[in-house]
Batch of 2 targets.
Target 1
Amino acid sequence: MKPATPQSRTDLLLLVAFCGFLFFYGLGAFGLVGADEPRYAQVAGEMLSRSDWVSPTLQGKPWLEKPALYYWEAMLSFRVFGVSDRAARLPSAVDAVLLIAAIYLFLRRFRPGGELDGALVAASCAGIVGFAHAAATDMPLAACFAIGLLAWYAWYAGGRRIYLAAFYIFMALGTLAKGPVAPALSGVIILIFVAVRRDSRTFWRTLWIPGIVLYFLVALPWYIAVQWRDPDFFRVFILEHNLARFSANVYHHRYPFWFYLPVFLLATMPWTAVLIAAVVERARGIWSESRKKGADAFLAPDDSWGLFLLIWMLVPIVFFSASQSKLPGYILPAVPAAALLVAEYLAARRAQEEVPEKKLSPLLAAAHGAVCGILIFAAFSAGSIMMNHRLLWSGANSSAGTGMSGTWMTGTWLTETWLGAATAVAFALAIGISAGSSAGLRLLTRATLFAVVIAMAAILRFAAPAIDATQSARPIAESIQAFSHEAVPVALYHVKREPEYGLEFYLNRPVEKYEDGNIPAAAHVLVAAQGMQTQAAELMPGRRVSYLTSIPAQKLDLYWVGK
């Protein structure tokens, strides 16, 4: 590795500042959302309270859907910073930093000259930024998976066994993050790569006995311990949440086969247009060379890195597209490969900027500028759309019923919409024009990164309050705690499951559900869908149901139910 220089130190400071803002700033800007975030955080909190590093539990009952890596990370975060939504998301932010650091170090060692741009492109992808802010298992898996594959290619290119050992260690950590999908996908990627390269010897050399031993030493102890303590683990985790989830729509996450194509393109914003150009150029080059030289076209060492990235990117997309159960986070392991393909494409263009036909085409520059503009506009207008269920262009379009309407709020939403539109147009034009300037692609890259920073700032400033108000149980819990500082019982009636898990995390106690016949005998707070006071009272003859307050953004009412 080349020694540090003043320029490299400046580059590192830029990378640290960029990642620090994108990954760590605003981790608690909105509360935990969905069902998974509060569940995972609650499981980690319960494990910490028992000092139990083996058995995941939710409200005291075994919760065997996922392995323990995220829980361990969250337990450490909770121990240092206390139990909070910020601390629950911190592990994913740290894992994202480790991923970007690995990309930077790999490129500096094996693809020198493009390490900063490669790391910055990866750090700015919407999928990486988004899941760095999620209390979930997706980023731990993606980070371990990508670092492991980079380590394997480092061994393939350099021959040092230390890299192969690192590959096995990170595949083991990936197995602890989300199960056997990490070694399975990596095995398929490597197998296809060596098959295309007609290099079966490399595949057999990959099956290195000390590395396999390392894998089992890291991954197996927890699996053995949890199976010993909870005999249902194999059935629940392997059979139900891996095999059944892949082969059948048992958890109601069914989407069409092509679902991951738009999801993946969104996850690679703002580099989507450049990625498409990079993939087309790579595929065209492979096809052209294969027609000229046949299979020998894949044997040239200079072609191996791009081929490896293309296979790495495509395998998770195809694999999870075949699954009967689909969630957006499944595709995250493919995003680092896409970012590296973009970085390679830009590096090749930058090295040949003097050659007119090798410059970034005006059409591609315009498309890239448009994508950046769309990203900025979406960031500015997301809050307004979430609260009004439409995009506001004039005061006449505002709607009541959200609980946040009014002249002042409508004016704020309109300001966001028009400010976002103006900023988006300005950046789209600036980025499109920058490709033809004397600074060329370097200016385009920096302008794109600035657009990402602007978009992130807009999300935190404008969209985060709307996300908190409409999607998180945090405001519900705060309303309950404002009414009573004591741990009063809480029950739900005609409420979605997301607030149920969120309230259990924020209140740190179980909630009951009227629909299940669980009506607390003691006085309690009832969280119900709007307009359900009469129906709820009919379930409890003789008990007084008093209105407390409303959460209009989530169409919920809070009541006090006496004894």
Target 2
Amino acid sequence: MINEKLVSKIFSEIKKAPSVPGPYSDLFGYLRSIEGEDFGYAHDKNKEMRTLLTYAIGLRYNVPELFSVYKKSLLFDAPHYLDPYLLYLELKREPERRFYQPRRNVLKPVVDALQALADDELDELFLSMPPRVGKTSLMIFYMSWLIGRNSENPNLYCSYTDTITKAFYGGVLEILQDKDTYSWHEVFPMAKLVQTNAADETLNIDRRKHYPSLTCRSIDGTINGACDAQDGVIIADDLVSGIEEALSKDRLISKWGKVDNNLIPRGKGKTKYLWIGTRWSVLDPAAVRLNVLSTDEKYAGYRYKVINLPALDENDESNFAYPYGVGFDTLYYQRRRASFERNNDLASWNAQYMGEPIEREGTLFLPADFKYYNGELPEDPDRVFMAIDPAYGGGDFVAGPICYQYDDDLYIADVVYDDNDKTVTLPMIVSAVKRHGIQAIQIEANKSTLGYKDELERLLRDEGIKINIMTKTAPPTTSKVNRIFDKAPDIREHCVFLESGKRSRAYEAFMANIYSFKVFGKNKHDDAPDSMAMLIDMAFRRSDRPVVFKRPF
């Protein structure tokens, strides 16, 4: 019977004197003794104890004794849980040379999802991250854990080229064989590497099997009849070779045919699927597979998850500024984005670095279509005004370009672009009014945004600001796409946007939304181009007042 009172008492002693090693050793010994009786309880409490140990080691007292218990705690969990396995595996390496520990804060959500996949809490996982941040390396470590904890389940790793599959195979083999660097044999002391074949890129753990513990193959290699992953994991890593293939609709369709006919059928039983790579296109294999899962009623209740970790966060800061200089800082990514923009290829930036597949075919605007300025506005504008496409959150964006008009030239000096609710976006608009001295605002009116104008007027009144605010209902006979299409020539000819490097995060997102807008096909968001169409309407709208003229007959 589990003595929970004893466990609670030891935890109390630890919290009173966190740097004293004895209670940790006592608690760990007891938890290890009850693992067979209550596995979940023993490991949950072990994890809780390890959190306290980490804090205690940071106090710099009795470090050798505390670290000894910490290592035992990790090893106790490592065969069953991926996160402690990754930490324990590299303890022999210097901290700055480790793969996982410097990246843990960023990669932990991915590791948790991989754990759920292994524990049969997920059926498929879709993972997108920028190049060179560790996703394939993490898969190498993950595979070494999978084949150690269950060598009987065959696993399959697939990529677009043999070069990548050979590197993956070599990476897994290195972890299994390099005892001076990795502690795989300590985690799985009974596991034996019994067969390797570099030519076939296969290896077996514990016994020789018809379908090996791990097989690595390119998508164009021999898969049918040579590979199987029953109850194991199929990893599809970068099946699209690059932009050239991504731009070819025929090649993408052909690639999906190989995936659907050759790769996916290699799984049966409780096989799990893991899709990794650049989200080039809505027609690439991972995107097509995701569409199948999300739209086919036969997959109702099917458990899948999508993780997209973009290069830059919502504050335009790097998500991958790892310690020891092994990642990429904000300036690096901002420079990469500027380079893509100079090449008129923000679509590739969004696909490779932000995890947003954008179809180039059918896009209405390109970066080369527009005029830009360096942030220095001309003096004495004719007027300053703002067009607002409102929203109340829920995934839709409030889009509001702020225009300094000089005759027919429209300088877009700033924008409000945010998908939060009105308690956030309305104060943003008020701040913009004060900052730019905006003289007029037009808000698109519809049934869901009728109160937006009233609330904005109230907030401006509270600030002592009087301003002309108009609402205009979108024409019921013209679709939003057609409205944007009709105003596109004027947007290209008359609007002058801030150049890259001078823009705020919101301004960059606003421009990306304009560049991604398609006339044909589905737009996830069209708020930015719609607000620009409204702005053109405000700038060049002609009066409908009657004019008295002399009768011509």
